[in-house]
Specification:
It is a multi-pass membrane protein. The protein has 554 residues and is mainly alpha-helical. The protein is built from 19 helices and 6 strands. Strands 2-1-3-4 form a 4-stranded antiparallel β-sheet, with no helix packed on it. Strands 5-6 form a two-stranded parallel ribbon. The protein starts with a strand and ends with a helix.
Length: 554
């Protein structure tokens, strides 16, 4: 038997239940719909509902008549509008664009200081070389640490409160960067600003996973990932022109003003998306309304330690456990980290290449960063529709019904050609710069790298979201850690790599690493991903065996 419970707001709960006695009617009542089913599993049976009235207030749960097992609080059917996956397309896109706005501004701040480093170093007496580059890269080191705290917290308090808190921290410390008077101050404030800014980077993909279904997720992920790549590409252009006409401090003030604008929009239009948190709020409302503590969500039933400390301990340790125990995350995070690090290697190396080697004025030299932006746009224009089309085509190819999700491995095909283009693009960039060919040639190499890199980036992010849907924020945090550590370290190698070895040999070393890491990665996941996910306690296994059997038979 199951019970449909109607709250004061008009929403109903469909829950399994033992038989309830029919109480006496009353003028003041809380409405129940007791549904009778011959099957012990109400989710697989056809229910015929009979309406009962139960006097209010509800009888005590300790009463002998009302002692029963925990009742499951879940969505009111597959079309429940409270479920973020059933939101209107307009609401989903509003959520995606707001999160993408945050994801754009935080990386924008990470790279906006690249052309301003000489002025910052002069004003704050920071020596040239690694110490000055640290002002740029320390922000990315915070990206490695922040998601390990903020992303798991979003699985306790929900996405929106943590996202807003992180962005407030980002706004405050970015503003303080603008008033810094010493090397220690700007370094510390940049690190703390990066901690706050990492909120959108670490949990953005989790928000998209919450509200987009697998077969429609490609476009939403593409816009979000594009924002994360466009930010670092456009930041130096903005910083170059700001420092030409105003103080370098306005680089930070501009970011603050833009972020405040997005924060205001988010206050009105950004809604909570994390399903376990929404169901927990719903369960608390039911418990308060019925005076019955036995109403629980699946998460409350599955996790015995529901104290605040216990929940926080589990969620904070989860990203580290996933990074240490999940080979899928290790392989994909390593390649994603290499691409992200190489992007910042190019960003930090552009001033020396185009201002010194090609003799361009600072403002004109920063325009070369457009090559990264254009390449990213082309990559998204290819990947966004192609990933959804490929995913649907693979489902048809292997006979998976339209109403069932496909395998996460169906995200990998686009990554194969992209992983081949990446080393070729780096070779082109390095040897054309070494030969001092027309400046457009290394720009083309940079654009090709940015396009192929973002395709791989989106395929990896979509795969991880599909494979670890319930813990996607923690899985993304694990990837963000490796990605950000490498991105922090790579710019420090620029003087030694290109200055001592030259652009040709230095670029060849980077391209060789891309061949070793990138080309085998999609094939490893394609052939062994399903087996590895089957052994994981974090992977989503609902209907997994059935879908794998369909693929194997096909």
């Amino acid at each position: 038997m199951s019970t449909l419970y109607t709250l004061g707001s008009g929403t109903t709960l469909n829950v399994p239940d033992q038989s309830l006695p029919r109480p006496q009617s009353s003028a003041t009542s809380t409405r129940y719909l007791a549904a009778h089913s011959p099957s012990p599993n109400p989710s697989t049976s056809s229910l015929s509902a009979t309406e009962y009235d139960v006097t209010s207030p509800s009888p005590s749960p300790t009463s002998a008549k009302f002692q029963f097992q925990d009742r499951l609080v879940t969505w009111d059917g597959p079309s429940d509008p409270a479920n973020p996956k059933n939101w209107s397309t307009k609401q989903k896109w509003a959520t995606s664009l707001i999160v993408s706005g945050f994801a754009f501004l935080s990386p924008l701040c990470s790279s906006i200081t690249a052309p301003a480093l000489p002025d910052i170093g002069t004003d704050l007496s920071i020596p040239d070389g690694a110490q000055r580059q640290l002002v740029l890269s320390i922000f990315l080191l915070a990206y490695a640490i922040g998601p390990f705290v903020l992303s798991p917290c979003s699985e306790v308090w929900g996405r929106v409160p943590v996202l807003r808190f992180g962005n407030m921290v980002f706004i405050v410390f970015t503003c303080l960067c603008g008033v810094s008077t010493s090397q220690g101050q700007i370094t510390a404030f940049r690190f703390l600003a990066g901690l706050g800014g990492s909120a959108s980077v670490g949990m953005g993909s989790g928000v998209l996973t919450d509200c987009w279904r697998s077969e429609e997720r490609g476009k939403g992920v593409a816009i979000y990932q594009l924002a994360g790549v466009l930010g670092p590409a456009l930041g130096p252009i903005m910083g170059g022109y700001i420092t030409q006409s105003a103080s370098w401090r306005w680089c930070f003030y501009t970011i603050v003003l833009l972020n405040i604008a997005v924060q205001i929009v988010a206050a009105f239009f950004l809604r909570e998306t994390y399903a376990p948190r929404l169901l927990l709020v719903k369960a608390r409302a039911v418990r308060a309304s019925t005076n019955n503590p036995m109403w629980r969500t699946e998460g409350e039933t599955a996790e015995p330690d529901r104290t605040f400390g216990g929940m926080l301990r589990i969620t904070l340790s989860r990203p580290w456990v996933m990074l240490g125990t999940q080979p899928i995350i290790q392989v994909l995070a390593l390649y994603q980290a290499f691409n992200f690090g190489t992007l910042y290697l190019l960003i930090s190396g552009f001033p020396a290449l185009f201002e010194i080697r090609y003799g361009m004025p600072r403002g004109d030299a920063t325009l070369n960063y457009l090559s990264l932006a254009i390449g990213s746009l082309i990559g998204v224009a290819i990947c966004a529709p192609a990933m959804d089309w490929t995913y649907a085509a693979m489902k048809r190819r292997y006979g998976i019904p339209e109403d069932q999700p496909g395998l996460p491995e169906f995200r990998m095909p686009l990554m194969v050609p992209a992983s081949l283009v990446t080393p070729c693009a780096i070779f082109l960039y390095g040897w054309s710069a070494d030969a001092k060919l027309h400046y457009l040639v290394p720009d083309i190499g940079a654009a090709l790298f940015a396009g192929s890199s973002i395709i791989c980036y989106q395929c990896i992010s979509a795969y991880i979201s599909d494979a670890y849907s319930l813990h996607s924020a923690s899985a993304s945090a694990a990837c963000a850690f490796m990605r950000s550590v490498v991105a922090c370290m790579f710019p420090l190698f620029v003087p030694a790599l290109f200055g001592n070895l030259g652009y040709g040999i230095g670029g060849s070393i980077v391209a060789s690493i891309a061949i070793v890491l990138g080309i085998p990665a999609p094939w490893i996941i394609w052939f062994y991903g399903s087996r590895l996910r089957g052994q994981s306690r974090f992977s989503h296994k609902e209907d997994e065996e059935t879908r794998v059997e369909m693929v194997q038979k096909a």
